Amino acid sequence: MTEKITAVKGMNDILPQDAYLWEWLEARVRSLMQRYAYQNLRTPIVEPSALFVRGLGEVTDIVEKEMYSFEDRLNGEQLTLRPEATAGVVRAVVQHNMLYEGPKRLYYTGPMFRHERPQRGRYRQFHQMGAEALGFAGPQIDAELILMAHGLWQSLGLQGVELELNSLGQPKERLEHRQALVAYFELHKGELDEDSLRRLHTNPLRILDTKNPQMQELVNAAPRLIDFLGADSMAHFETVQAILSANSVAYRLNPRLVRGMDYYNLTVFEFVTDQLGSQGTICGGGRYDYLIEQLGGKPAPAVGWAFGVERVLELIKSQGLAPQGQVPDIYAVVPEMAQLPLAMKTLVSLRAQGLHVQMHSPGQSASAVAVAAEPGASSASSAPSEPAWMQLGSMKSQIKKADASLAPYALIFGAQEVLEGQVTLKALRDGVGEQRKMPLGDVSTWAKALQCELNRTAD
Ligand code: ATP
Ligand code: MG
Which one, 99, 141, 204, 245, has least CB within 10 Å? Predict the structure, then answer.
């Protein structure tokens, strides 16, 4: 046997029964985005490495150790598989001068890549859906985005998702806070771990984000940024909170919430749950008023969020909120080859009415294919027999398959009834009606009735 090739570690296949859930969630999010008038934007998965180094900040975890960067051997370009999408969205907005016509509300979905240690809820290829509002300065847009995400959890029926909120203020306010922070940690240098010592002068704010339990007390008592915010920043933050409160959206102020990228200012937020182990953040976002300028655009404010599709789906599944998998409306039973062409023509008409139809067809194992392909294989068997694909299976075995498919109906193309110009529609579950003969000459009439009954829409 030839050796098998397996997927790259931390990068998952999404198999059909799960992919069905993905499509369902994506459709829900798309509809939500449209209700809030956000438009879809699709950017490349590969971007110039400089985009992320400049956009996310050189001393962030992502840029320091998580990026899949490589040189294009054909032309020497330095490229990176995107670890997040905001930088790419901003690049596209600047490149196409999209804010020229006015502010933009955008959303995206797709794979992201980070070289992290794979574990539950943390993968090397993972997926985000995100929304970005560019060109808006007011706190009402921060609130709009938070309401949108909150509305998504609500419409999915998710329980136990909490909103954490903070304000990072403006660069000048952060600088003053940073000086106070460095002075404080200098005083307690002996209590800092290796990571924090390294960050003390490069990115002291990130020390506040430490997960080291031994440093929690120290970090809790550190100077708080909120105490350094000026009147404008406070008014912005308070307006966001007022809108959330008016909408009965509960939130917890978390002065230690700093987020992993350098580009944030003013409002930052995360939706967290304690039901996913240590990977409990399902969605994160905030305002990034200086990123557009930093990436070469005309200065313009912006705010956005992204949620992790894998984590949200895991939560949906663990709370029993996932819809039933894909089930056909009709399973077509065709016991003999002679009826097959007419049967397939009928099924095409049913599908045109929006019905989901699965046709019975015998499976063949790969080893049987290999045997058949061997020279002399068929002549070796004594009696000449019809090829395997002609043996469609008995009526009984096909009905069994129909039952196992969970389809509410079987449509049976028996030789005798087809001769009479009819086909049998057999109810397989309780409550979907009797066994009936349907005319083959007038498929669209009864197909329309089925379409209504099963809630399908035609093309
Ligand atoms: P974490 O603190 O869990 O590392 P993060 O702050 O790095 O998250 P963001 O960059 O804000 O995450 O991305 C937004 C969301 O994308 C996260 O809240 C999470 O749901 C999801 N996410 C981030 N990294 C991964 C990953 N490696 N695997 C799966 N989902 C992820
Ligand atoms: Mg991370």
Answer: 245
- Residue 120, C-beta contacts closer than 8 angstroms, at least 6 positions apart: 276, 277, 279, 314
Instruction: Report the 10 Å Cβ neighbour count for 28.
Output: 14
Residue nearest to atom 8 of ligand 1 (CA): 281
With tokens 């002075």, the residue in question is 183
- Is the CB of 267 within 6 Å of ligand 1? no
The pTM score is 0.90
Helix (H, G, I), strand (E, B) or coil at 208: helix
Nearest to 165 by CA among 53, 284, 321: 284
Count of residues for the chain?
459
Which of 343, 345, 351 shows the shortest CA–CA distance to 456? 351
CB neighbours of residue 178 within 10 Å:
17
Ligand nearest to the CA of 122: 1
